[in-house]
Amino acid sequence: MKNRIIVTGGAGFLGSHLCERLLGEGHEVICVDNFFTGQKRNIVHLMDNPYFEVLRHDICFPLYLEADEIYNLACPASPIHYQRHPTQTTKVNVNGSTNMLGLAKRIGARILQASTSEVYGDPTVHPQKEDYWGNVNPIGPRSCYDEGKRCAETLFMDYRKQHQLGIKIVRIFNTYGPHMHPHDGRVVSNFIMQALRNKSISIYGNGSQTRSFCYCDDLIDGFVRMMSTSDDIIGPTNLGNPNEFTIKQLAEQVIELTGSKSRIDYLPLPQDDPRQRCPDITKARTELGWQPTVELKEGLIKTIAYFDGLLTEDPNL
Ligand code: NAD
Ligand code: UDP
Ligand code: UDP
């Protein structure tokens, strides 16, 4: 069935892959984005498709459209971006989500929230299951994002309770791939850009902290499965790759795959940086039949090729 689907944050890293996937399935897609961290480059290849529309709009303001489904991804995701505008980050999660829920309520659309592993904060339980309530600092440098996303989950659950809205919540763990912003400060993009330029690789702390990296195509598949499951499966559901690596291992892997001459530089660890992060994806496996299929090495090769292409186009990037 052909649906009309709104993707907020559709010009961002994940949103652009989602728009492409949905168009590929024959749906009509409306990308709503204020281009705060999104880039035209991510969606330019979709512009010729007559079933693709782009709306420059900040979802903190009301939006009146008609659609069957809404994927709510609008929110800066990298620490340097969201910490640059912390109040705006909380607002997009609270006011922006409220508007999208109000829109979904008016038009009777199903709505999916892109939540995050950050709702677990610096976790004291490992790996993280959905019933863990988290260890979050409410007033630290990451709070605008963590608490904003936690409040958005509350809003989604309460719109369901109060208005019987068809909601879905996925908690995304670190995801990487083509279309990441080259200067978003996230570890995968930083390391690849540094390695391709033979510049020092910046490890924060001693590199023993862990993350689990999911390739974007796997994650988008999880989104689409979640949206199409029955009404009673609402989440929150973890989506991520359970293979855990230290940041030092990631640096070594990137150096090897790029054949770089980069050396490793150890820099101070940022405040409130989670020590360990790894999803328990039992729920996604059983309820969605989903699990990641792309190994880190395979995903890194594709991501390196993307960044290499960007640098060939513009060596001063
Ligand atoms: P991104 O920064 O590349 O994309 C976010 C998009 O939202 C951008 O295009 C930006 O311009 C847009 N946006 C921001 N504020 C907006 C507003 N007020 N109105 C309209 N558009 C707005 O980030 P991403 O990595 O693609 O993340 C997408 C979503 O997934 C975010 O909600 C993020 O919190 C969540 N997420 C991502 C990851 C990850 O590893 N990439 C992990 C956990 C959660
Ligand atoms: N809203 C929107 N588009 C719509 C319907 C509502 O942007 O099509 C916004 C509206 O501005 C409101 C918010 O969504 O601020 C929440 O709407 P809801 O109906 O839940 O709340 P109420 O208007 O009753 O406060
Ligand atoms: N990190 C690092 N060097 C960098 C960027 C990040 O060592 O150039 C570390 C960071 O301190 C964190 C991990 O890599 O421990 C993942 O950071 P990212 O910002 O990608 O995501 P998040 O902290 O939100 O998981």
Automatic annotation (TrEMBL):
Pathway: Nucleotide-sugar biosynthesis; UDP-alpha-D-xylose biosynthesis; UDP-alpha-D-xylose from UDP-alpha-D-glucuronate: step 1/1
Membrane topology: Single-pass type II membrane protein
CDD domains for this protein: UGD_SDR_e
Keywords from the UniProt entry: Decarboxylase, Golgi apparatus, Lyase, Membrane, NAD, Signal-anchor, Transmembrane, Transmembrane helix
EC id: 4.1.1.35
Keyword Membrane: yes
Residue intervals passing through the bilayer: none
Domain of life where this protein originates: Bacteria
Cofactor: NAD(+)
Cellular localization per UniProt: Golgi apparatus, Golgi stack membrane
Domain NAD(P)-binding: from-to ranges: 6-301
Enzyme class: lyase
Family indicated by similarity: Belongs to the NAD(P)-dependent epimerase/dehydratase family. UDP-glucuronic acid decarboxylase subfamily.
Protein name per Swiss-Prot or TrEMBL: UDP-glucuronate decarboxylase
